[in-house]
Amino acid sequence: MTEPTLTGNVYTIEETQTYGQKGFRKRLIVLTQKRGQYVNYIPLELIGDACEAADELERGDQICAQYRLSGRRWQRDEASEVRYFLSAEARSFERTELAAQVTTPVPAQPQPAASAEQQDVPF
Fold first, then answer.
1. DSSP states of 16-45 as a string?
2. What residues have CB less than 8 Å from 75, skipping those under 6 apart?
3. Which residues have a Cβ under 8 Å from the Cβ of 62 and sit 6 or more positions away?
4. For the domain with range 5-98, which CATH number is right: 2.60.40.10, 2.160.10.10, 3.10.310.50, 2.40.50.140?
5. Which of 51, 66, 86, 108 registers the highest number of CB atoms within 10 A of its CB?
6. Measured distance CA(26)–CA(46) in Å, rounded
7. DSSP letters along 68-106, please?
8. pTM of the model
């Protein structure tokens, strides 16, 4: 079975974080995808030796990443609520195109109040 892929533009590349006595390393990159009128921000984690691979990336690069999903269950104690977390780990990626220019989203101008039927939310 092949791993799923995701294509997007690099929005953010965080520094590598190290955790615990064994030196577990994790680095986050965030990709953007335009979905209709909304921008989708997708966090991908790089784990261990893969952290250095993000050094070659720049903001605005378009990449195609193979990823796998990881889910975790967490509960503080027997009396507390159970929480579930999902993360996407980038297994590999390649540049597909270099974006010509990176633009920061500009805040939208105030719009007249919409009726209940016109209020369409992205979720």
1. PEEETTTTEEEEEEEEEEEETTEEEEEEEE
2. 81, 82, 83
3. 7, 8, 9, 10, 95, 96, 97, 98, 99
4. 2.40.50.140
5. 51
6. 6
7. EEEEEEE-SSTTSPPEEEEEEEEEEEEEEEE-S---PPP
8. 0.71
Q: Which two tokens stand for residue 72?
A: 């975790």
Tokens representing residue 112 in the block:
């007249």
Q: What would the pLDDT profile of 26-72 be if each residue is shown by its tens digit?
A: 999 999 999 889 999 999 999 998 999 999 999 999 999 999 999 99
In the chain, where the domains are located = 5-98
**C-alpha distances in angstroms, 55 versus 38, 80, 90?**
28, 40, 14
Reference 24, options 47, 52, 58; nearest CA is 47
Type of residue found at 109: Q
Residues 33 and 63 sit within 8 Å (Cβ to Cβ): no
Q: Which residue has the tokens 């335009």?
A: 34
